[in-house]
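Justification of resources, computational component.

The compute hours requested in this renewal are based largely on the per-chain cost of generating structure records like the one below. Each record pairs the submitted sequence with a full structure-token output. That output is archived, and it is also reused by downstream analysis tasks.
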Amino acid sequence: MKIYTKTGDKGISSLWGGERISKASLRMDAYGTVDELNSLLGVINSYDLEAEIKSSITRVQGELMMVGSDLATPLDLNEKLKQIRIKQQNVESLENEIDGWTVKLPELKSFILPTGSITGSLIHFARTICRRAERNCVKLGENEAINETVVIYLNRLSDWLFTLARYQNCLTDKVEKEWHFD
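The structure output for this chain reads:
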């Protein structure tokens, strides 16, 4: 099987089910940004991280593949194609990890700058891509029917990434730089 099909050479791509859409569409922008986020998490996971963190990132990468599949499959085709959809239990897994890491961190008393270790800073960067993916999905959802849990998942994932960045910085003894309005 060849990796190139040439079917997208004119700026058109296929959704699950065969519908052809513009590569510049809201739907393509939404799941393309999810793919971008997933790729950055792969870069982050290539660094020397604790096994627990690597495992969590790998799990989230799999969940982002589900989000991409979810977004690439119009809702009305779900019964026919039996596509995987992101679920509330995926959101709850993120919440449980956020809660577990938060109890190990110093209390936040002000805004912090997105800095720290290389990996902590990259995780903060991933959070900003996650927020863009969330905005793109909100925009898509205002124009087409999508699984509402996708937006909830991405919203929680950005919180997860923020907390993970703090946790990674704590593990590497990087002091958070507070930001204060002067």
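The radius of gyration is 18 Å. The chain is about 60% helix and 5% strand.
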